[in-house]
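Anyone up for a design puzzle?
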């Protein structure tokens, strides 16, 4: 997992504490979690209210491609203003309530997919290291899979709504979940759905109720299969998947 820390701009700094915290975090991430790395995008030389797109393109030139990062941890409003330049999974660690009114429209709601808000100033190193995989597993907006892709549409405490596309002749793993049940509504295409010991034809308008712990799978027909998935449970992370069989060799 790669984390990009974005420093405050000159007009967003009250003192040097934010930069000290960012440098400390960037240094401890590789030590805290195996396979994690980080870089810093230093915006301390520019003004948030005046920085242009051309300036941002020059500033980010040295760390491209930005798509290499799994999470952007922003201590500045700038990544939200230039959202198109940055990966979609972002954490803000600045005081949203004190942001200038002209920037407020750029700040997403806290339940929006691809976004999380965390004040980490009082967290220790272990807690911060645990934060990133938690955000990655719970707040991601979009992901490509060997069988197609999924997109998160709505995030809430106890439910999540996703759109899933299963490509022709592709299959999800045969799987179960410990913490959630699911309702699958077929919105487009055709294919098959396995639930328990039944393999059923799936077509537009079909609805499948999948209980917590029930074995299930979706398969794409010749037109592919589009599913609206409602997840209900106390934990809705992407790591709550127990794969029993997978044609792509995933565990």
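Challenge accepted. My sequence:
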């Amino acid at each position: 997992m790669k984390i990009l820390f974005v420093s405050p701009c000159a007009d967003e700094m009250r003192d040097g504490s934010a930069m000290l915290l960012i440098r400390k975090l960037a240094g401890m991430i590789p030590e805290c979690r195996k396979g994690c790395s980080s870089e810093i995008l230093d915006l301390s030389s520019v003004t948030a209210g005046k920085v242009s797109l051309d300036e941002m393109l020059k500033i980010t030139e040295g760390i491209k491609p930005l798509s290499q990062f799994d999470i952007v941890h922003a201590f500045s409003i700038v990544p939200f203003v230039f959202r198109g330049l940055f990966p979609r999974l972002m954490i803000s660690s600045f005081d949203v309530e004190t942001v200038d009114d002209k920037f407020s429209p750029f700040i997403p709601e806290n339940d929006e997919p691809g976004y999380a808000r965390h004040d980490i100033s009082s967290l220790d190193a272990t807690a911060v290291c645990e934060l990133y995989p938690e955000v990655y597993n719970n707040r991601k907006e979009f992901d490509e899979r060997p069988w197609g892709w999924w997109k998160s549409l709505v995030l809430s405490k106890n439910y999540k709504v996703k759109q899933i596309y299963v490509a022709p002749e592709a299959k999800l793993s045969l799987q179960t979940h410990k913490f959630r049940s699911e309702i699958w509504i077929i919105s487009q295409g055709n294919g098959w759905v396995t639930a328990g010991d039944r393999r059923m034809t799936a077509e537009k308008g079909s609805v499948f109720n999948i209980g917590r712990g029930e074995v299930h799978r979706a398969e794409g027909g010749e037109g592919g299969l589009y599913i609206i998935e409602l997840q209900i449970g106390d934990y809705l992370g992407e790591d709550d998947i127990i794969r029993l069989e997978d044609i792509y060799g995933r565990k």
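A detail worth pointing out: The first strand starts at residue 2 and ends at 6.
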